[in-house]
Structure to design on (380 residues):
């Protein structure tokens, strides 16, 4: 319901801006920061539908990753070697931008390495991945400025305590962060620059006409010169024809595990499952490949088939010698599409979109936000 009891002062001071950004996640905040950095006089306002960012920015697993070998194999088939090189470059630049902007301490950046696990029944996939180590190391060498980023690491399997795993590939540069701390730091940086953020303000309709954009929300009507949609999968509510497919990620965190052996970020089954250590616990998520159609949703929640498989992995493979309880559960909404590159473009006159991070929001979100901010700035 549109708020009607607005004063003259409220309408004149809170409902207009040079640029309005919809979505206060990692992409939206980075776009706003970029605009204010380019010109501090630009009035930037962010509208967020939730109390906290509604998609995955504070609900992801906190992986500072740019692709496991099995993921890169699949991605290279879709976009070619040159396209993959460009995509990894964006991911790496995004991670560096995030670290440089906020500082490693403020995001709890920890480079413990990343590992991809393979069971004996995945022998063919494991063999293909090991055979491609040199290929992908060469592909990314000029991006990460390091040789042999990916290495075979089978001797480390025993130290982690896994069961029924016989092949392990390590990514020396993969790290982990605390997404909550990251968002707090981004919000603090935004406030420092004078960026206004209104929460619990859901955009219901957008009209572009002449030289302005009108946004109708549950809190009133806003006006701006330009508007940027940074709502990832939720953009389907406003632009249903855009090539964006939502993907829900279900996540659980165990109780503290005494003498936990895990340290690092871990990928399994082409990245559809992922887990890591956090505060002496194990965080595990994924499983949307068990039922793609059901998980193509913007509704938060969980399903029995995914929850049971996550528990089975914990008990039989990841923590076979430990007793534990599940103390936290949640879900986050990602956005995927037929192309791996994010959408960063004008979708209507004065209306822009920066969405579809394809499950790599931590890595590519900062870079996507920066590119979107520059795009909007150049059109002001």
């Amino acid at each position: 319901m549109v708020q009607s009891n607005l004063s003259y002062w409220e309408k004149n001071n809170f409902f207009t801006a040079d640029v309005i950004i919809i979505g206060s996640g990692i992409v939206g905040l980075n776009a706003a920061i970029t605009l204010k950095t380019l010109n501090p006089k630009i009035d930037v306002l962010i509208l967020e539908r939730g109390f906290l960012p509604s998609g995955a920015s504070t609900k992801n697993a906190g992986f500072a990753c740019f692709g496991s070998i099995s993921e890169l194999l699949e991605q290279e088939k879709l976009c070619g070697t040159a396209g993959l090189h460009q995509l990894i470059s964006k991911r790496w630049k995004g991670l560096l931008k995030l670290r440089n902007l906020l500082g490693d301490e403020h995001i709890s950046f920890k480079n413990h390495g990343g590992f991809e696990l393979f069971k004996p029944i995945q022998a063919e996939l494991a063999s293909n991945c090991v055979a491609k180590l040199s290929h992908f190391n060469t592909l990314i060498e000029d991006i990460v400025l390091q040789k042999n980023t990916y290495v075979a690491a089978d001797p480390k399997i025993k130290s982690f305590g896994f069961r029924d795993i016989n092949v392990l590939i390590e990514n020396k540069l993969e790290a982990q962060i605390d997404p909550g701390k990251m968002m707090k730091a981004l919000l603090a940086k935004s406030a420092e620059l004078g960026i206004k953020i209104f929460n619990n303000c859901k955009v219901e309709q957008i009209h572009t006409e002449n030289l302005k954009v009108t946004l109708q929300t549950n809190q009133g009507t806003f006006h701006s010169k330009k508007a940027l949609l940074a709502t990832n999968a939720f953009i389907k509510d406003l632009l249903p024809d855009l090539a964006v497919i939502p993907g829900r990620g279900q996540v659980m965190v165990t109780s503290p595990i005494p003498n936990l052996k895990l340290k690092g970020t871990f990928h399994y089954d082409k990245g559809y499952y992922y887990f890591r250590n956090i505060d002496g616990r194990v965080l595990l998520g994924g499983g949307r490949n068990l039922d793609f159609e059901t998980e193509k949703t913007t509704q938060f929640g969980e399903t029995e088939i995914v929850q049971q498989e996550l528990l089975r992995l914990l008990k039989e493979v990841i923590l076979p010698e430990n007793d534990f309880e599940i103390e936290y559960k949640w879900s986050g909404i990602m956005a995927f599409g037929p192309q791996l590159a994010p959408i960063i473009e004008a979708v209507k006159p004065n209306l822009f979109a920066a969405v579809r991070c394809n499950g790599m929001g931590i890595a590519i979100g900062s870079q996507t936000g920066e590119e979107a901010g520059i795009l909007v700035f150049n059109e002001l």
User: Anything to note?
Assistant: The domain at 245-335 is CATH 3.30.9.10 (D-Amino Acid Oxidase; Chain A, domain 2). Residues 118 and 269 are 7 Å apart (CA to CA). The chain has eleven helices and 18 strands. The chain has a mean pLDDT of 96.
